[in-house]
Design brief:
Elements (H helix, E strand, L loop, with lengths): L2 H11 L3 H29 L25 H36 L30 H39 L10 H6 L5 H4 L1 H5 L15 H11 L1 H11 L15 H22 L16 H21 L1
Length: 319
Amino acid sequence: MTQQVEALLTEHLRYTPLSLIDDIINTVNTIIYRAIEAIENGLFSIPPQQLGYSPDGDTSTVISQPGSDRPEAKDEIENGVHQLETLLEATVDKTFDKFEIYTLRNILTVPDELAPWMRLGHYEGLTLPLASNAPTPESILALRRKVQETRKLNLALRNTHTSNATTITQLKSILSSPQSTSGVSPELATINPSLAFLTSHPSASALNLSLAKSAKTSTESPLTNQTQFFISQLPALRQALSELRPRLTSLPEKMGDVDWESRREERRAYIEGRVRKVVEGIGAGGDGGEMKGVRVGREEVSDLEGVVGGIARADRMEE
């Protein structure tokens, strides 16, 4: 019996089904006790000779009297009555256990599939007012759509977060030191060359390009400030680019007479000159690749050559 069925029967009968069965069993036990008591009193009131004892002494004396000379008869009657009481109690318990199970399963019960649809008599004609904030089918449908859209947005944000994390990892690998990228394959090292020498080398500290916070101002690193400044200038660059694009129509369409090879040489010479000035500005000499008091390492020179080569390749791709 489920809790719903039990509550329904209790409300209908005004008492629980189990209490009814308990009352029946208690009533039967009371009758048994009364019958046992009557049997015991009847046996004590009968003379011993009528119960089969030998006629010794006074035949008019009953067993229950204080002066009875038959104590063995009294003990035997008490023992027999106790055994009869125990036998009857065991029989009643066994029988009424079956009665309880049968009653709860077949009489005092309601099918589980019908219990939610049953209405008692005192509920006839009773209408319960709905709450003002009770949900309607339209509001439930709207909430369901909001949940679906929220899940879509959550999935899109997760994908964006994963993409941004991948981009940050790639940028950090570019600025990582050569020791930390020793386990990277040569193909990845070619695609993403290490630019850590621009910030971690002592020359970068001399040019105030270190990623560490400034010891004087205890603020963000100079490189971070410069990057933020460059980002703030991007809108102005976009505006200038939008103003220059219409002027491209005034340029000659045929560019076959332009000497591209000399232009590349001029650009390469310009880049090498600028790099040489930067190197000389941080204390490098003009010959032998030696700095004033500090020798330029091969790794730094190779990294600078890689940067120049990358810029040249980018220029060729743009042309």
